[in-house]
């Protein structure tokens, strides 16, 4: 079987490799080159060195977006994973209607980001009418509005992954811990969490990358208002590239920096959590 796979590997892998090269690799390399250029279209690109990167890091809107995105990601990742894990623990107990609860909690993940943003914009503005205020009246409203939206969308998805990990824990391990007199907290720390580390790795990766790359919801919910204080990195790059004349190269430089940051965070997280999997 292995010989057959090796013999025909190139044949089956070639279409995927061609698609990957055309749709991702070539545009990515071109994007890196264009970040060192001044241009309006790809054909009139003029190489100007690191000027675009200097302008990007001297842009206060970019720095503010980076800080806002980092704080939002930290809060979202912690809250999503903690709440999703608690729900998963509850829904793996012998409770009636667990399948219905799982379905209901997962459904928000099926709704598109733009639609979610506009729905929650109306909901939050309706709640804030009593203040009176709107979600764009203060940056803190926008921050927590985005956080609530992200929690509502992602918790159900992460919960399903945690449920899968919890259900795969061998009952013998839990029984052995009970025989040894372990408390529920000790079983959680010493048995459950080490055994579901693969699920934790996946959930952390998905929540980290999705939170850091958030665009649709940010655009629909606050559009960066007030005064760009709730503008996240993806939205700042979009506004720089399409909303500021002569700043296309700067927008591309920001996009390259953004890609490096996301890749560095994701790879670091994967390395750290996978090392825990090996230990467990």
Structural class: mainly alpha
- The CATH topology, please? MetI-like fold
CATH level 4 superfamily: MetI-like
Taken from the alpha-carbon principal axes, the silhouette is: globular
- How many helical elements? 12
What is the alpha-carbon Rg in Å? 23 Å
The largest pleated sheet is described as: 2 strands, antiparallel
Strands, count? 2
Kindly summarize this structure in a few lines.
By secondary structure, the protein is an all-alpha fold. It has twelve helices and two strands.
List keywords for this structure.
single chain; mainly alpha; MetI-like fold; two-stranded antiparallel sheet; 75% helix; globular
Describe this structure in words.
The protein is an all-alpha fold and 280 residues long. It has a single domain, classed as MetI-like fold (Orthogonal Bundle), CATH 1.10.3720.10. Helix content is 75%, strand content 1%. The protein has helices at 2-34, 51-57, 60-90, 98-106, 113-128, 139-167, 171-179, 184-195, 197-212, 216-221, 233-243, 248-279; strands spanning 37-38, 46-47. It has a two-stranded antiparallel sheet with strand order 1-2. Helix 2 crosses helix 12, helix 3 runs antiparallel to helix 9 and helix 6 runs antiparallel to helix 9. The longest helix has 33 residues, at 2-34. It is globular. The two termini are 32 Å apart. The mean pLDDT is 87.
């Amino acid at each position: 079987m292995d010989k057959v796979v090796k013999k025909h590997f190139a044949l089956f892998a070639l279409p995927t490799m061609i698609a990957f090269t055309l749709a991702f690799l070539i545009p990515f390399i071109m994007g890196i080159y264009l970040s060192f250029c001044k241009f309006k279209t790809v054909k009139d690109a003029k190489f100007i060195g690191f000027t675009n990167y200097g302008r990007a890091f001297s842009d206060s809107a970019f720095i503010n977006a980076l800080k806002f995105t980092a704080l939002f990601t930290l809060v979202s990742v912690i809250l999503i994973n903690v709440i999703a894990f608690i729900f998963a623990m509850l829904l793996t107990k012998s409770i009636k209607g667990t399948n219905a609860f799982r379905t209901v909690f997962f459904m928000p993940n099926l709704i598109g980001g733009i639609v979610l943003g506009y729905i929650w914009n109306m909901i939050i503005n309706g709640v804030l009418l009593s203040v009176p205020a709107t979600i764009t009246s203060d940056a803190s409203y926008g921050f927590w509005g985005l956080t609530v939206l992200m929690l509502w969308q992602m918790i159900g998805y992460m919960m399903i992954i945690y449920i899968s990990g919890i259900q795969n824990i061998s009952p013998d391990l839990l029984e052995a811990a009970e025989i040894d007199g372990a408390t529920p907290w000790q079983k959680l720390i010493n048995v459950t969490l080490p055994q579901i580390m693969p699920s934790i790795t996946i959930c952390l990766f998905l929540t980290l990358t999705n939170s850091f790359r958030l665009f649709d919801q940010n655009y629909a919910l606050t559009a960066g208002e007030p005064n760009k204080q709730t503008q996240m990195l993806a939205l700042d790059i979009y506004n720089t590239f399409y909303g500021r004349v002569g700043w296309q190269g700067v927008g591309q430089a920001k996009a390259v920096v953004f890609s490096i940051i996301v890749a560095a965070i994701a790879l670091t997280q994967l390395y750290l959590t996978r090392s825990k999997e090996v230990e467990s």
